[in-house]
Amino acid sequence: MTLPPMDRPSFLARFTPFVAVALLAAAGCVPLFHAAPSKPTDANIAAILLAANNADISYAELVPTRSDRSDVKTFAQRMQTDHAGVNRLVDTLLKQISLTPEDNLASLDIRDDAATKRAVMHELAGA
Question: Where are the domains of the chain?
């Protein structure tokens, strides 16, 4: 039994991506296996909660100088009050259990995203 001649261009087209990935992996440029993400610790979760609350507080702080509507200002004040209250409760709890919040990828992402959103909101007015 004889095999048909190999069609060189289609053979290369099919296997070039595999060869490229294998070479990059061998060179250490492409990890073939990713480590499973670690579970967040209590300290990480505390940092995430505080980052999210602080982001919401920072948004609400922009409202008084950018809105003319009393209902929007009232809502912003309520956000500040509620989120600051949650932060106080979290701080009290953390002190009671001797836990220090530990920044992590999620908490830092929240902080950085909030800074970006604040920069956009800073330019807005109305409502």
Answer: 42-122
